Amino acid sequence: MDTFAALSQGLTVALQPINLLFAFVGVMLGTAVGVLPGIGPALTVALLLPITFKLDPAGSLIMFAGIYYGGMYGGSTASILLNTPGESSSIVTALEGNKMARAGRGGPALATAAIGSFVAGTIATIGLALVAPTVVDIAISFGPEDYFALMVLAFTTVSAAFGSSVTRGLTSLFLGLALGLIGIDLQSGQARLSFSIPDLLDGVEVTTLAVALFAIGETLSVAAAGARADEIIEPVKGSVFMTREDWKRSWKPWIRGTFLGFPIGAMPAGGAEIPTFLSYALEKRLCKKPDEFGNGAIEGVAGPEAANNAAAAGVLVPLLTLGLPTSATAAIMLAGFQQYGLNPGPLLFVTNPDLVWGLIASLFIANGMLLILNLPLVGLWVRLLAIPRPWLYGGILVFATLGTLGANPSLVELGMLLIFGLLGYVLRRYDYPIAPVVVGLILGPLSEQQLRRALAISVGDPLALFQSPIALTLYALSALALFGPLLFFLLTGRKAPVGADED
Amino acid sequence: MNAPRLSSTRRPDKAGFVIAFGLAALALVVGWDAWRLSSINAHSAVGPAAFPTIIAGGLALLAVATAVEALRRGEQERPRDEFVPMAWVLAGLVGQIVLLPLLGFSIATGWLFAATAKGFGRGPVWAHFLAGTVLCFLIYVIFAKGLQLALPAGPIERLM
């Protein structure tokens, strides 16, 4: 199908008043949770899943995408004004952005972040619309063994990209995979790891695990940090309008950030952090006034902010075309699709073109809304930062338990929330990444299904897994992702840069 | 994130060993369950035990790797965590589970709010409890009436 015809068809879906409303609610919520410390887009979407169960799928998914994009915008505000990144993909933004805010240039820093996010988000969404049909064409020929290889690739990149070491990333991943085993095996009808507890027969809910790890785990570790975690808010000083020089220094980093962020996000490499680190390093090297770096260089805000928004659009490529989530938020969005009986992948473009293209078209609209919400209204969001932390975290826990009870009003579910919350605290305390646990839980059962399908076709011959050229290429890439950091270390004698955890 | 630093003395990292032990135990549980399943006759080429076996193997390998890392990297310095605030938050969560079946969503969750706020250093508990209960009752009304979500009801909710 012609991409532009499909996209304009999608635009008519996205422009329906009810869907515009969903997009607006999504970007508002997304910006708010992006600004607030302790909650991110993954948690927000997870909390909304039970509430949106009865709503229209297209509208809810448009709202989820709005939350995802909004989180990227809001994260920069917290980074710049608070020096505490709301999202891990805004860590780099804090480096220069907070220096600018302290020097009284918070306004232009917020402006270059917002406009850069808009430029990058728009270009990358065009990229998504152009690339997606091509990936779909390729993916349609994938057999189960190729899908299994693809998921192995996602596993390795997600665990190698997050966290402080590959062992830790893999440990988190295998915890998620083990949790994914719990429940009735759909093919044989056998109960696995359920210890005769009826509530466990349905398996672990993605929502419960995500809410526990992100909300409860985070709250516990912030509480445990006590006075260590105190923070200072920089008031927005100066005009939010950028000078001519700011524009001149910003537009190239925006473009470069976009072209770093989108491809890296689109590859099953996971996350938006790595491109922000790369963009920061690149801008530092290209900047004509390198001495300004470290003291509030606008390029150091413009580039990484563009990169993280472009990567957010990129992550949607494998999610929509292959059903492959490469970040925690994408994993929860996949759960969102599944709750409506929709399976993202090449077939979704054939069976539900209105929904897919409506979603993609709505991203353009969401970007426009976010620009308006974040520039003139930035003062409003800053006020969110002034909410006292006892009330903020009290409220987070109220909503966390509310979401869990809404999905399944049972005490066992709340008990699991508590246990996984403690797990989340332990993982944080000992530097284990969170995202691979969630990705493991949701992709584990899917990968097992593909594995068994592939082996059923080959009548149990495991060699069949390694006979397709596509699968072999994907395994080679997985090996590179796992052993790449080690190779990098052996070749250069330095530790490879790793991304931080994403939520 | 704070980078782990090597301490001057090369004592093995105790926490690492505990985690390695936990992983080994988990590997055993998953492996035992897989063994139990493998004795059941499956009608397809690959039964329900194959995938758990792979995962149990992976967990066992990771347990070894974690133990080796704990030995090689030595004891890690970690910032001290404060126990009392955490205990308040946990008391809030456990209390909610205990109160929920008897007293309903608003009171149980109001307690959770008050205990969490106390954990973050803001009291008095009773004032936060009252405010939290009122707030949660409003949430209950919105969610139960507006979105038809079935939240556990107690004496207050039944007044409606």
What does the model show?
The complex is a heterodimer of chains A (503) and B (160). Chain A is built from 20 helices and two strands. With 503 residues, chain A is an all-alpha fold. Chain A has one domain. Chain B folds into two domains: 14-73; 83-158, no CATH class. Chain B has helices spanning 14-38, 50-73, 83-119, 125-146, 155-158. Chain B starts with 13 loop residues before the first helix and ends with a helix. At the A-B interface, helix 8, helix 9, helix 17, helix 18 and helix 19 of A face helix 1, helix 2, helix 3 and helix 4 of B. Chain A: Pfam families: TctA (PF01970).
Number of strands of chain A: 2
Based on secondary structure, the structural category of chain A is mainly alpha
Beta content of chain A: under 5%
Number of domains of chain A: 1
| Helix proportion range of chain B | over 70%
Summarize this, please?
Chain B: The chain crosses the membrane at residues 50-71, 83-113, 125-143. The complex is a heterodimer of chains A (503) and B (160). By secondary structure, chain A is mainly alpha-helical.
Question: Which helices and strands appear, and what pairs or packs with what?
Answer:
The complex is a heterodimer of chains A (503) and B (160).
Chain A: H1 3-14, H2 17-35, H3 41-52, H4 57-82, H5 91-102, H6 106-139, H7 144-161, H8 166-181, E1 183-184, E2 191-192, H9 206-225, H10 244-266, H11 273-286, H12 299-322, H13 328-339, H14 346-351, H15 353-374, H16 378-384, H17 389-407, H18 411-429, H19 435-457, H20 469-492
Antiparallel strand pairs in A: 1-2
Chain B: H1 14-38, H2 50-73, H3 83-119, H4 125-146, H5 155-158
Pfam families (chain B): TctB
Organism (chain B): Ancylobacter tetraedralis
Protein name (chain B): Putative tricarboxylic transport membrane protein
Q: Keywords for this structure?
A:
heterodimer, A: 503 residues, mainly alpha, two-stranded antiparallel sheet, 20 helices, 72% helix, globular, disordered C terminus, B: 160 residues, 2 domains, 5 helices, 70% helix, flat, disordered N terminus
